[in-house]
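Researcher: I'd like a candidate sequence for this fold, 140 residues long. If you have to choose between options at a position, lean toward the conservative one.
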């Protein structure tokens, strides 16, 4: 197993803890306070990027055909039994949200940001759990 996967998983756990802390803020507080809003945006972004990086490393480790887009990373992990397929399909749109956060293709709407903060963090925790299970099978 590659240590960089473990390092990224540990970083992701730390980011999730910060996001869990940010969940205490109401929609209105996030909308009105640019420091809080900026923190939510940044920690969602680096969490999603960590998940995608972990996916890319595992795809490389397993010598699976490299995906053409970020969105395809989750799909590829599902198709190859690394993530449950239904879960992979569920989190696939997160790659698109990551692109919005990074490239500002559209002004990040507070309602979408709040929705991802309140409902996406649990999926990040599940992602860690599924990846840890997969890695455990590689140590045998």
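Model: Candidate sequence:
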């Amino acid at each position: 197993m590659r240590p960089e996967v473990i390092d990224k998983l540990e970083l992701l756990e730390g980011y999730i803890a910060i996001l869990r802390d940010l969940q205490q803020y109401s929609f209105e507080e996030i909308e009105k306070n640019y420091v809080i809003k900026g923190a939510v945006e940044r920690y969602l972004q680096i969490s999603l990027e960590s998940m995608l990086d972990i996916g890319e490393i595992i795809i490389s480790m397993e010598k699976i055909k490299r995906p053409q887009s970020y969105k395809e990373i989750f799909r590829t992990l599902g198709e190859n039994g690394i993530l449950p397929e239904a879960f992979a399909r569920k989190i696939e749109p997160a790659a698109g949200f990551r692109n919005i956060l990074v490239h500002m293709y559209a002004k990040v709407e507070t309602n979408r940001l709040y929705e991802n903060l309140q409902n996406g963090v649990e999926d990040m925790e599940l992602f860690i759990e599924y990846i840890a299970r997969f890695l455990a099978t590689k140590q045998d």
